[in-house]
Amino acid sequence: MKITQAKNYRKPLYAIGLATVIMAASVSGCTDPGKGPDYAGGMDVRPTETTEVALAGDVAVAPEETATETEKPLITDGIVSNNVD
Amino acid sequence: MNLTLHLTDNCNMDCSYCIREKCPKDMSEEVLYKACDLAFSKGTRAGLCFFGGEPLLKKDLIYKALDYCEKKAAETGIRFDCKMTTNGTLLDEEFLERAVKAHLGIGMSFDGKAQDVCRIFANGKPTSSVVEEKAKLLLKYMPEASALATIAPQAVPFYAESVRYLHELGFKHVSFVIAYGHKVNWTDSDLDLLREQLDLTASYLKELFIKKDRFYMSALDSKISDCIRGNNTAERCHLGVRQLPVTPSGELYPCTSFIGDKDYLLGNVFDGIDNKKVAELAKKSSTPETCKGCDLVKRCTNSCGCANRMNTGNENQVSPLQCTYERMLIEISDRLGNEMYQIDPERFAEKFT
User: Fold this and answer.
1) Which of A34, B121, B256, B306 has an alpha carbon 20 to 30 Å from A83's alpha carbon atom?
2) How far is the alpha carbon of B82 from chain A, nearest alpha carbon, in Å?
């Protein structure tokens, strides 16, 4: 196993094909239902949900974000298992 | 805001890949209520995930938290969401009735056919038969409950078989992740075998798609849906931002794997969050040098500080294991996605959008 940079990667056909569907949904006000916290130690497995979550601290973490309660869409899927439970 | 409550550091199981040190430390009611208040103190929603150790060892605390937060939600108008990750062995009908009432989402840690390979009781006995019965009970009350499988190298030969088994047991949502950290040792041959197992899994998912069987298997399906939506997976990791763990003594950390490292202590439920520390942490977060220029930089989990820390000791340094695994996942999920899309574009859109 090694770290290898991928080159000449092409967006898959399905993603190109469905991009228009997503665009249509986003402009027609079809937004996803919200959800709460992620499962700890694993990952949340629902693909279609998003939510808002507050920053933990009252701080800006990026130039465009202002202090206090900057809300970002929560991920739809966790990344890593903490191998716990 | 979202918090993960470590209700106890104790557990009735002894999983070979678990990185948490078991000890009889439980959360006090005082810490519990302070944590609930903290969850309601920021943002438009309050979210709790009950965790441990094994959270069902502290059912009394879960009941208290649910009662308290439901009342608080009614008083403030702030929406309250809750989940729990459990090994499932202590589930019972009384708890599940309360959980259904509270809309508590339950994720059951269950490695499928590999359950007894890594997940055993603290007394050394196998857990599979108990957990299978509890899974059936869980699904009776919550048909949409999730199974969460963690695959260590020794469990790889059971990977595809486990996906099939969990599906046949009745789970509609399963999550499969590989085990990271100092308790596992991946080799190239493990990863070769993992590729074969992922290929078999992709074939099974395609078969279910053709049969119009609604089933969602992360990690492959999530790679497809993220690609369609243009989600930048690499941006997902916001240590100290998305969901903070709360230890039994009330300390706050950026993520579960950082617990106990005082350099990453972000405050406590009594005094609140140390904003300066959160800001410092945010500034340190960056794309690993080795990943800049990679075409897949936005599709993989290179910036997951938790995984990076477990694998390399540095939250901003990706490991060869993760790079290899992520490239494998993306390749196989893209092939699967294209095949399903070509079979039935409309149903594909329905499933993934």
Assistant:
1) A34
2) 7
CB-based contacts of A7, cutoff 8 Å, min separation 6: B295
- Residue B99 confidence (pLDDT) above 90: yes
The C-alpha atoms of residue B134 and residue B140 are separated, in whole angstroms, by: 10
Q: Do B43 and A47 touch (CB under 8 A)?
A: no
Are the C-beta atoms of B156 and B190 separated by less than 8 Å? yes
The string of pLDDT tens digits covering residues B284-310 is: 777 888 999 999 998 988 878 888 888
Q: Is the pLDDT of residue A23 over 70?
A: no
What integer pLDDT is reported at residue A83 of this predicted model? 60
Domain total for chain B?
1
How do residues B106-124 score in pLDDT, each as one tens digit? Answer: 999 999 999 999 999 999 9
3-class secondary-structure state, position B215: coil
> Does B278 contact A69 at a Cβ distance shorter than 8 Å?
no
Q: Please indicate, yes or no, if residue B242 is contained in any of the structural domains.
A: yes
Convert the pLDDT of each residue in B12-69 to its tens digit: 999 999 988 888 899 999 999 999 999 999 888 999 999 999 999 999 999 999 999 9
Does B155 fall in a domain?
yes
Is residue B323 one of the residues assigned to a domain? no
DSSP helix, strand, coil percent of chain A (3-state; round to 5): 20, 5, 75
Q: Is residue B305, in this structure, part of any structural domain at all?
A: no
